[in-house]
Design goal:
A 3-stranded antiparallel sheet has the order 1-3-2. Helices cover 54% and strands 13% of the residues. With 101 residues, the protein is of the alpha+beta class.
Length: 101
């Protein structure tokens, strides 16, 4: 049993650079980052997964979370590089958020 574990650790550490994937390239790694975030951030990420691009107020409507909680969740998701934001073309006061994993 110990030899199997030892062999597994040796083979997993000797992977070439082409076999290893960066976190941005793999959706599972992005969701692993989300798993460590608060429940509100997980909910916002799920809503963005289904709705694609939304403003903060639209996210608050969809999730039924208070706007302050949505702001906090979005900031945590941006820190984890899971969400991208851009200015709205129709209203420059608003930012649009998109899931990037």
């Amino acid at each position: 049993m110990a030899s199997i574990i030892r062999r597994h650790t040796v083979t997993s550490t000797t992977m070439s650079a082409s076999e290893q994937t960066a976190p941005e390239e793999s959706g599972a790694d992005g969701w692993d980052a989300v798993a460590e975030l608060p429940p509100s951030a997980k909910l916002v990420a799920k809503v963005l997964e289904y709705e694609d691009t939304l403003s903060q107020s639209e996210i608050a409507e969809e999730t039924l979370l208070p706007p302050r909680t949505v702001r906090y969740a979005l900031s945590r998701l941006e820190e984890a590089d899971v969400v991208e934001s851009r200015f709205s073309f129709s209203d420059a006061r608003k930012r649009l958020y998109t899931l990037s994993i």
